[in-house]
Amino acid sequence: RDSVVRVMRREAAGREVEELVCYYVSRREVEALALREHLRERVIEETVPGRFVRIGRVPLTLNGKVNHEALPDPWAAEAGEGGEAAGAREASETERALAGVWAEVLGAAEVGRGDNFFELGGHSLLATLVVMRVEELFGVEVPLRAVFEAPTVAQFASLIDARKEAEEQETETGRIPRVSREQPLPLSFAQQRLWFLDRLSPETASYNVPVAYRIKGRLDAGALERSLNRIVERHEVLRTTIALAGGEPVQVVSPHSRLTLQLTDLGDVPPSERLARARAEVEEEGRRPFDLERGPVIRARLLRLGPEEHVLAFTMHHIVSDALSFGVFVRELSAFYEAEAGGAEARLPELPVQYADYAAWQRGWLQGEELERQLGYWRGQLAGAPTVLELPADRPRPKMQTSRGAFERFEISADVISKLGDLSRQEGATLFMTLLAAFGVLLSRHAGQKDFLVGAPIANRGQKELEGLIGFFANTLVLRNRVEDGASFRALVRQAREVCLGAYAHQDVPFEKLVEELQPERDLSRPPLFQVAFALQNSPSDSPHLPGLSLERFRADTHTAKFELLLNLFRKGEGEGVAGGFEYNADLFDAETIERLVKHFQTLLRNLADEPEREVADVSMLTAEEERYFVYEWNETAAAYPLDRCVHQLIAEQAARTPEAVAVSHSSGSLTYRELDERASRLAAYLAARDVGPGARVAIMLEHSPQMVVAVLGALKAGAAYVPLEPGHPPLRLAFQMEDSRPGLLLTERTLAGAEWAAGTPALELDAQWEEVERYDPSSPVVPRSDAIAYVIYTSGSTGRPKGVKVTHRSLVNYTCWAASEYLGDGADSFALYSSLAFDLTVTSLFAPLICGRRAVVYAREGRESPILRVFEE
Question: pTM score, two decimals?
Answer without folding.
Answer: 0.65
